[in-house]
Design a protein that fits this description.
globular; 15 helices; 3-stranded antiparallel β-sheet; 409 residues; alpha/beta
């Protein structure tokens, strides 16, 4: 299938309005295009959302730092939490590749815990087994990185408890949430992305809100925030906005660490300042489509509904096929959907399927991670976005039903 016109229902379409257009034009006309007042406003607005219940709950305030991608944010958070050469990070094989490669960029090794049998979330029992083995082998674990797949929240209470239990006076184990899919996601422990030591969000074009490209790092720890602020911009002890808006000369700064170039420019932050105001509206629009899907797919014996739980932001709808009820594979089912003009995807290809990881860790195979492999082999991500119409949703539903009925075992 080729040609844009053959797509009847896209996999995703960003909800962009005149507000975003005006905000970007305001930046362009201002003469200040890089990180400045819009990025600061975006950070402030984001903290207000994910930290809105903190004062009542007695939690420390959330500090948000805008970055140019979730990947950049993960590197900043890991570096600030002590991930370095000779240390180990625990995460899941069921994630986008950058979750793990960020640790490798810092010289650390990765230990993988399988996901839960009935969900896509990292299994705390498997995390604990790895922590026990690491302690016996004297491996230094610096971080656990749970990933909130499709917006459904991992068992953060247990994961945070495990990090505390296995930390030592010599080595703290930090919890860094990969919250790329999870905004807004309130839980009893706080919003996803603010429960651990740090959390990192994505604003890539397909995410729950977008800046086209971008991300946000959140923490309640001022020391971590200071370190990430310095490392975000070349290791300078002053931000660019401060250098050019304060009376002090712009060239008066010090380099106190070998930092990165991970800041979010105002051109993109301007989009985010508009999007964050409509985050809950977007959620309600997605949830309305989810409800249509669940109602239609619930009675079908060849589909299992996606996992759900408190705080689920419903970033993606992961349609799970029941293989024994079908005469065709997931690949064949997906191809038939594409041939009818539906935009689909698969989240995610487990990392043990990729050459780099197989060559790095010979025992990192599908056989050792049966839950991740099982979910992967039967999952298709179907269209879900705020501006999706009921008619488009019905086309998806009718297509899925037709393919399933024609290929029922």
């Amino acid at each position: 299938m080729s040609g844009e016109n053959t797509i009847k229902v896209p996999f995703h379409k960003a909800a962009i309005t005149k507000a975003e257009e005006d905000a970007v034009l305001d930046v362009l006309r201002s003469g200040w295009l890089t990180t400045g007042k819009y990025a600061l406003e975006f950070e402030k607005k984001f903290s207000a959302v994910v930290g809105q219940d903190d004062e009542k709950a007695g939690r420390a305030p959330v500090i948000s730092l805008a970055v140019n991608s979730n990947t950049s944010g993960m590197i900043l958070a890991m570096e600030a939490c002590g991930v370095r050469a000779g240390t180990y990070v625990i995460t899941t094989p069921y994630t986008f590749v950058s979750t793990a490669t960020c640790a490798r960029h810092l010289g650390a090794h990765v230990l993988f815990a399988d996901i839960e049998k009935d969900s896509y979330s990292i299994d705390p029992d498997n995390i604990e087994k790895i922590l026990q083995q690491a302690a016996a082998q004297k491996k230094i674990i610096t971080a656990i990185v749970p990933v909130h797949i499709a917006g459904n929240i991992c068992n953060m209470e247990r994961i945070v408890e495990l990090a505390k239990k296995y930390s030592t006076p010599q080595q703290k184990i930090s919890v860094i949430e990969d919250a790329a899919h999870s905004f807004p996601s309130p839980t009893k422990l706080g919003y996803a992305g603010t429960i651990g030591d740090a959390g990192v969000f994505s604003f890539y074009v397909t995410k729950t809100i977008t800046t086209a490209e971008g991300g946000m790092v959140c923490t309640r720890n001022p020391d971590l925030a200071r370190r990430m602020t310095v490392m975000r911009m070349h290791g300078m002890d002053r931000t660019t906005w401060d250098r050019y808006t304060s009376p002090r000369a712009s060239w008066e700064y010090d380099i106190i660490a070998p930092g990165y170039k991970f800041n979010l420019p105002d051109v993109l932050a301007a989009i985010g300042t508009c999007q964050v105001d409509r985050a809950w509206k977007f959620y309600e629009q997605r949830k309305a489509i989810v409800d249509l899907y669940n109602k239609a797919f619930g009675p079908l014996d060849f589909i299992e509904l996606p996992p759900d739980g408190p705080g689920n932001s419903w970033h993606l709808y992961l349609m799970r096929l029941v293989p024994e009820k079908l005469k065709i594979t997931r690949e064949q089912f997906a191809k038939k959907m594409q041939e009818t003009g539906l935009g689909i995807s698969v989240h995610f290809i487990p990392l043990f399927h990729f050459t780099y990881w197989r060559e790095l860790y010979p025992d990192f195979t599908a056989q050792n991670y049966p839950n991740a492999e099982n979910q992967y082999n039967r999952t298709i991500s179907i269209p879900l976005y705020p501006d999706m119409t009921k008619e488009q949703a019905q086309l998806v539903i009718d297509t899925v039903k037709k393919i399933g009925q024609e290929n029922h075992a």
